[in-house]
Design goal:
Length: 466
């Protein structure tokens, strides 16, 4: 049975604790009971599997090393059963490799020995805050498209939202890396906490440490009061490090320690403070090549690159360009309080054929310029400009007959394609084409496009047995 489907008392929470060390087991059990959580105990993999097969749990908290195997077996066992119970793994002190292996295997999170009670409480609260599958995904429309590439991205972001593993998002500039990071945050256990985006390339090197970790009053000249850093601002939420390859070496060392120890020390402070932050990072550079060139620490690379998410460039999602363009156009018009405008069929064809070296960011700039240049309610090809040049349709589609007939044919093909993709749902097709429902209905009437009648079953033909 999946998480959230328990037949017990409403609001009841149950955690399976798997550990063969009596002291740690007792410590975890006392901590969870004080949080009002029902605890079930197991001392081995076999015993834990028996409990998981016969009962329902909201979380499994297991030691990495057990008498009859490793805690990762429980991660795989739950996945094989089709369950979605989060599994948190307890690893030995300083065993970073085990922690990374657990996260890659699909563990929700990890906690190191000696076990810190505050860290355990924060972990348990995050795991219990995971959506149980009954809530709709938050703002799923932000990654628009039904092509193979974009469907794959949405599926992976959905899985990544259910773990605390660090995620390394790759992709060209303007391909939507921050949007993917926000989607992971908004559909995960930390959706109620802050999302703090940081452009690592925009911070002067001499301010890096104070900006990331904060400082105490009097720590240096000009420090007239205490200041929180990015880690403190993101506490309980997600810290998104964009262009992480731009971090200088000295800062990479400090960042590695903060990630491993889950603690940071303000400038001028004598002790470290615990922080509960999930790290997501992105860069348009090849971080592996940066490691080979000695510009990025290998140990930090392995801590950040637990799971990689690749954002496809827009040229690999040509079938989704009309839908993305319609969404961007709708947002631009709403932001500027402008009346409805639509993209002509020829303009859509031109956009679909464009190379988009700047990806979605370039598309946004093209449409923002087009909205300003367009004097009517239809954006035409001559309104589409990128880099000072008009975006033209592919040369292979130069009309062989009169232009009005050619444009009607292009319009008919675009409408039929949209209707076919949406199962003749005219509302969805209108949205896909970037036009209103009323406009689509008018154009269908003008072009004599009708919904096909369903095949009828008139019974057996005369002379055949019923």
């Amino acid at each position: 049975m999946k998480r959230g489907e328990r037949r017990g008392a409403p609001g009841e929470r149950r955690v399976l604790v798997v550990d063969d060390e009596p002291d740690i087991h007792e410590l975890l059990e006392l901590t969870l009971v004080k949080m009002g959580i029902d605890v079930v105990s197991a001392g081995s993999i076999g015993e834990a599997k028996a409990h998981l097969s016969g009962s329902d749990f909201d979380l499994c908290l297991t030691d990495m090393r057990l008498p009859d195997g490793e805690g990762l077996e429980l991660v795989r066992f739950i996945g094989a059963q089709g369950g979605d119970i989060p599994v948190a793994v307890i690893t030995a002190y300083g065993s970073a490799d085990n922690a990374v292996a657990a996260l890659k295997a699909g563990a929700f999170d990890y906690v190191g020995k000696p076990v810190g009670l505050e860290q355990v409480r924060a972990l348990v609260k995050s795991a219990l805050a995971l959506p149980d599958g009954t809530q709709p995904p938050a703002r799923n429309q932000r990654l628009i498209g039904e092509g193979v590439a974009m469907r794959g991205v949405r599926e992976l972001t959905g899985r990544l939202a259910r773990t605390q593993a660090p995620v390394y998002i790759t992709g060209e500039s303007g391909s939507g890396k921050e949007l993917a990071a926000r989607l992971i945050h908004e559909n995960g256990a930390r959706r109620g906490g802050p999302f703090v985006p940081v452009n690592c390339g925009a911070i002067p090197e001499n301010l890096m440490e104070s900006e990331f970790f904060g400082y105490r009053k009097g720590a240096f000249t000009g420090a007239t009061q205490d200041k929180e850093g990015f880690f403190q601002a993101a506490n309980g939420g997600t810290l998104f490090l964009d262009e992480v390859a731009e971090l200088p070496m000295a800062m990479q060392v400090k960042l590695l320690r903060a990630i491993q120890e889950k603690q940071v020390r303000k400038i001028g402070a004598t002790q470290e403070d615990p922080v509960d932050v999930r790290i997501l990072c992105a860069t348009h550079q090849d971080l592996g090549r940066c490691v080979e060139q000695g510009r990025f620490r290998q140990d930090l690379f392995y801590r950040l690159n637990v799971i990689e998410l690749r954002m496809p460039p827009l040229r690999e999602c040509r079938e989704d360009i009309p839908a993305i363009a319609a969404s961007v156009l709708e947002r631009l018009l709403a932001q500027n309080g402008l009346p409805e405008k639509r993209l002509s069929a020829e303009a859509l064809e031109a956009l679909a054929a464009h190379g988009f070296p700047g990806n979605v960011r370039e598309l946004e700039n093209i449409l923002e310029r087009a909205v300003a240049l367009c004097t009517g309610d239809e954006i035409r090809v001559e309104d589409l400009q990128s880099g000072g040049s008009v975006i033209l349709p592919p040369a292979g589609r130069v009309p062989s007959g009169p232009l009005p007939e050619y444009l009607e044919q292009v319009e008919r093909e675009a409408i039929l394609a949209a209707l076919g993709k949406t199962g003749f749902n005219r509302t969805a097709a209108a949205k896909l084409l970037g036009i209103s429902f009323r406009t689509l209905r008018y154009r269908m009437q003008r072009l004599d496009i009708r919904e096909p009648e369903p095949a009828r079953d008139n019974g057996p033909a005369p002379g055949t047995p019923a």
